[in-house]
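Hi P.,

Sorry for the delay on this. The queue was packed all week, but I finally got your sequence through. Input first:
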Amino acid sequence: MPMTADELKAIIAAGLACEHLEVEGDGRHWSAVIVSSEFEGKRPIQRHQRVYATLGARIQSDEVHALSMKTLTPAEWSAS
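Then the structure:
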């Protein structure tokens, strides 16, 4: 049974302190807007790696096939 957006959102939120989190997708292909103070001072690739770390084996097992992310700090989110 494919993962739901709420399940993916809960997995990310459990592993990363998020000020804002939106997740949309079809069960395998996802897009997310993730706002976290943990992204302060990190390059985009480091931010994405941090999110992938919350998903662990779900990425490697292809349970989450694709995740397109917009990763922002709270200040960046406020400015957008």
